[in-house]
TrEMBL record:
The keyword Transmembrane applies. It comes from the Bacteria. This is Pilus assembly protein TadG-related protein. The keyword rRNA processing does not apply. The chain crosses the membrane at residues 16-35. Keywords: Membrane, Transmembrane, Transmembrane helix. Residues 304-328 are annotated as: Disordered. Residues 14-59 form the Putative Flp pilus-assembly TadG-like N-terminal domain. InterPro entries: Tad_N (IPR028087). Residues 305-316 have a biased composition (Low complexity). Pfam families: Tad.
Length: 459
């Protein structure tokens, strides 16, 4: 019997539908699998990038904090240098006024037959004439310079207090500011994409709470490092440490005409809390005397001018210069200006002693490791915030995370490096006197990874 063309037996109808349903289910399973895998991969990548951004931002804050201390330390040193210069100028100006009056009266330098000319002090003679003819100007200048110096020291004291307060506030506020910054950076990477959690306690924190693990504040007798830097900076102005010269006629004592002019002056930082300047001038003559069984060359001194200016100590205190009467006007009762109010060298921040004493040339790094977590219900997978939700038997093919959170760990490192080599070829070790602190990301240690896993889910 012939079957009509296109006719299908009743028992074969609908068999292709079964294979179609299996194919459709398999396709849906593959679709969910690909969707969840892609979303999960994107979530992990984004969480790692966010962790890097958070760790790097914290590192930048650490580097800026260290550089801020370096800049403020430099400003504090500049203040001290200004005080040293003000003290030096005030002492020098007062001395010049005193010397000018002596040039008129004692040295007779308004006359062509002056004492320096008669003694053959050819180098000192023109100086004496200049001072004698400018005595009236020198008197007024000495008062003006002293007044201006006192005002400058008072301003420097106020600036010092502000700078010290800024360092203390920075150290006190850094921990809370860092915590807030890290969460802000993390949230900015997940705008409208759910929540992300930054651990409050880092895995590694070399900076520590208020920097206690890396830097410390030096005060009292621990300010010697700041003193060394300050004195070196102040002495670069050659007028500050030494203002001395001599003028001698070169004749031997036996001629009974030997003479010498001595100009002495300088400024020192005495201890940790006092700047002291002194300036003197005197003429020395020698007379040759013959005795019954011996002879002698006796020296006579004529003081021409002296002044002293201090900051931080009471007037009349031994200034530590020592020497003869002409070398130590304060101790010998020479003219001395009233000392200015000065609180001494400031307290300052620097690396801790064990870091400063590091024997190698490599500066100590500052590491910071942080962990970020994201709950699976915040991800854009089918188990989380995605609108695609499987049901029934398809729910068995969800992403099935090993835990209820995704986790990422990142580490930043702050290091000290000059942007260019020193001109003297020496290696500069890390400190808080130069703002050369930089930051980069480094590999996270296995210890920090183990610690992050052991912490489990955030509470």
């Amino acid at each position: 019997m012939l079957r009509p063309l296109g006719h299908t037996p009743r028992r074969e109808a609908g068999q292709a539908l079964i294979f179609g349903l299996f194919g459709l289910i398999g396709g849906l399973v593959a679709l969910f699998f690909l969707f969840n895998t892609g979303q999960l991969t994107a979530e992990k990548t984004k969480l790692v990038n966010t962790a890097d951004a958070v760790a790097y931002s914290a590192g930048v804050m650490h580097a800026r904090a260290l550089n801020f201390d370096a800049y403020t330390n430099r400003a504090l040193i500049a203040n001290e240098v200004m005080i040293a210069q003000a003290v030096s100028m005030a002492s020098w100006a007062t001395y010049v006024a005193d010397h000018s009056n002596s040039a008129q009266s004692q040295m007779n330098c308004t006359n062509q037959y002056s004492v320096p000319v008669r003694l053959g002090l050819l180098t000192y003679a023109p100086v004496c004439y200049s001072l004698a003819f400018s005595a009236s100007i020198a008197d007024g200048s000495g008062t003006s310079v002293s007044s201006a110096g006192q005002t400058a020291v008072a301003a420097a004291e106020q600036a010092k207090n502000v700078l010290q307060a800024a360092q203390v506030n920075m150290a006190a506020d850094l921990f809370l500011a860092r915590k807030s910054l890290m969460q802000e950076v993390a949230d900015a990477n997940y705008v409208n994409e759910g929540a992300v959690h930054v651990d409050n306690i880092p895995l590694t924190d070399d900076f520590g709470l208020n920097g206690s693990n890396f830097i410390t504040r030096y005060a009292d007798n621990d300010r010697t490092r700041f003193k060394d830097a300050t004195v070196e900076a102040a002495n670069r102005d050659r007028f500050v440490p030494k203002r001395s010269w001599d003028s001698a006629n070169g004749l031997p004592c036996i001629t009974d005409s030997k003479a010498e002019f001595r100009r002495r002056g300088g400024t020192e930082l005495i201890g940790l809390d006092e700047w002291r300047a002194m300036d003197t001038a005197s003429v020395h003559t020698w007379s040759f005397n013959v005795h019954l069984f011996s002879f002698s060359c006796d020296e006579d001194e004529t003081p021409l001018g002296a002044a002293s200016q201090g900051a931080g100590a009471s007037s009349g205190r031994d200034n530590g210069f020592g020497g003869s009467r002409s070398d130590n006007p304060v101790a010998s009762g020479y003219a001395s200006s009233k000392d200015w109010n000065y609180s001494g060298l400031p307290k300052f921040y620097d690396l801790k002693q064990d870091l400063l004493k590091a024997s190698d040339d490599l500066p100590p790094p500052l590491r910071f490791a942080v962990r970020l977590t994201r709950s699976k219900d915040q991800t854009r997978t089918s188990e989380g915030r995605s609108a695609v939700k499987p049901s029934g038997r398809l729910a068995k093919f969800d992403s099935k995370l090993a835990s209820d959170v995704l986790m990422a760990v990142s580490t930043s490192e702050v290091f000290f490096r000059r942007p260019s080599s020193r001109s003297d070829g020496k290696t500069e070790l890390a400190s808080l006197f130069n703002p050369f602190w930089q930051v980069h990301l480094v590999s996270t240690s296995s210890a920090d990874i183990a610690k992050a896993i052991a912490l489990g889910e955030p509470r």
